[in-house]
Amino acid sequence: MNVGDRHFRTIWVNEDGWGVDIIDQRWLPHEFRVETLRDVKATATAIRDMWVRGAPLIGVTAAYGMALAMRADPSDTALDATWERLHATRPTAINLKWALDGMRSFLRPLPEAERAAAAYRRAGELADEDVELNRGIGRNGLAVIREIAGRKKPGEPVNILTHCNAGWLATVDYGTATSPIYLAGEENIPVHVYVDETRPRNQGAQLTAWEMAGHGVPHTLIVDNAGGHLMQRGAIDMVIVGTDRTTANGDVCNKIGTYLKALAAHDNGVPFYVALPSPTIDWTISDGLRDVPIEERADEEVSLVWGRDADGEVRQVRISPEATPAANPAFDVTPARLVTGLITERGIAAASTDGLKALFPEKVAAA
């Protein structure tokens, strides 16, 4: 996608041929910064501290982290140590393990002298594959937007509610939940996006809103608790969110607060869709509440917020008493029964074991 008049992906190889450049998302929307990762330590920090975030992008970043590791030390010991170090950074997003497993299996049989070059090549392929997966999600999700638009008055927008950021910043390009929205714009289908702020890290306010503004998508920022109110008044035509892990039976683990949006949508008859590439499906589990590990992050993310002050300085301020502790579960699980459909690169699946089997029979057989 474009930033100004220049196309960017969220991650790419530096012009030196080996460093890995990322958009450092901590500074958005106030500053656009590019950071260069040059070792595994920096890669782990970038994932853990959310310089990069979003399940697909985390996976690709980890793949490039493996390439950086092989450049420094292509031994089996380093291969396994890198897997362990990067896997420990973010426990919920299954794409991280998927990418690390794939890279290790790909590199293990190769001679050590060939591993670094092969790792960079394979990481680049995973990045390209992610872009194509997201384009497929966009095409399939566009059909839903197009159908809703067909029932509206001429010129009346399709009103879409999002939660967190499942845009191109969460992937390599296009995004998952935003890909259908961007394609709708290319077809001149009028849309309007209600952007949840998404406390505590405000990915909606800081990232999704920045994306929408940059691409000229009509949008309105709302506080997290306004979604149900808007649904009660018929102001929302559909909800579309991303996911960090989807179980084999269609349970969805996404940013904290997603479950409440799904409950409100169910109560008001609003379609609730989840957009995801197939690597986000965890075929090994079928009970999201029981089996998906929920990341607990630092309480400072709840107690402190970043913003730009009246003098134009980006600074952090406290919003709660210093003596007050805070809990910070980063994700929640939305049961499959509340999900209207899972928008994947192969089509839209019912949020059920049978629905996923129909689209991905080979995955089920392998599992």
From TrEMBL:
EC id: 5.3.1.23
Site (Transition state stabilizer): 164
GO-annotated molecular function: S-methyl-5-thioribose-1-phosphate isomerase activity
UniProt binding sites for substrate: 53-55, 90, 203, 254-255
Top EC category: isomerase
GO biological process, one term: L-methionine salvage from methylthioadenosine
Keywords: Amino-acid biosynthesis, Isomerase, Methionine biosynthesis
Active site annotation, chain numbering: 244
Catalytic activity: 5-(methylsulfanyl)-alpha-D-ribose 1-phosphate = 5-(methylsulfanyl)-D-ribulose 1-phosphate; 5-deoxy-alpha-D-ribose 1-phosphate = 5-deoxy-D-ribulose 1-phosphate
Keyword set includes Acetylation: no
Pfam family, one: IF-2B
Pathway note: Amino-acid biosynthesis; L-methionine biosynthesis via salvage pathway; L-methionine from S-methyl-5-thio-alpha-D-ribose 1-phosphate: step 1/6
Highest taxon in the source lineage: Bacteria
Family classification: Belongs to the EIF-2B alpha/beta/delta subunits family. MtnA subfamily.
Task performed by this protein: Catalyzes the interconversion of methylthioribose-1-phosphate (MTR-1-P) into methylthioribulose-1-phosphate (MTRu-1-P). Also catalyzes the interconversion of 5-deoxyribose 1-phosphate and 5-deoxyribulose 1-phosphate. Part of a bifunctional DHAP-shunt salvage pathway for SAM by-products.
Protein name: Methylthioribose-1-phosphate isomerase
Annotated gene: mtnA
